[in-house]
Amino acid sequence: MIKVALVDDHVILRKSLSVLIGMLQDFDVMIEAGNGKELIEQLKDDHLPDIVLMDITMPVMDGVETTKWLKQNHPSIKVIALSMIKNDLIVIRMLKNGARGYILKDCEPEELREAMREVHEKGYFYNELVTPKMKGKNLEKEEPLNKVMINEGELIFLRWACTEKTYKEIADEMGVSARTVDGYRDALFQKLEVSTRVGLAIYAIRNELVTL
């Protein structure tokens, strides 16, 4: 049985989600919390959840801070961000802090089931929201960094792409033109076989090119 914790400050949504997950085979909701602080208070070292479905915007302790805390203190717990926010920079922020997937609250129950199962069995779940070309990709056999011909400028840009700076701000930080940054981005899209900024961030995170 896969043990699940729900962290969301909207009580009705959380209770409804708990009922839904309870109807799915092989899943059991063991913790419900309204924010990260409540979750931490309920964690017991000898009875930890396998997966945490984590809202992002919450009072007291939000999803970003809580996900980072879990990564540092209980790395065996896998976090899936569950939010209404569809924004590349928010997705990247959650992934950098340890989230293994990112799904929207209005997703179909089957996608929720698939996300939880893939995160539990494979470690990650990438849907169309995260990066289209990574869906179905065999991440266990992802091409390592030293096998991909990335030049110094592209590598510097790749690290900056994992921040919350706009492409224009990245160009200013690198001391190059916006067109040059566009060139780095497009070249990396082709070399790494991704199609979004989130895809670039995932590659950098998995290859440990960025740190918290």
UniProtKB/TrEMBL annotation:
GO terms for biological process: phosphorelay signal transduction system; regulation of DNA-templated transcription. Signal peptide: none annotated. It comes from the Bacteria. It comes from Sediminibacterium goheungense. The keyword Cell membrane does not apply. Residues 3-120 form the Response regulatory domain. The modification 4-aspartylphosphate is found at D55. Residues 143-208 form the HTH luxR-type domain. This is LuxR family two component transcriptional regulator. Keywords: DNA-binding, Phosphoprotein. One of its GO terms (molecular function) is DNA binding.
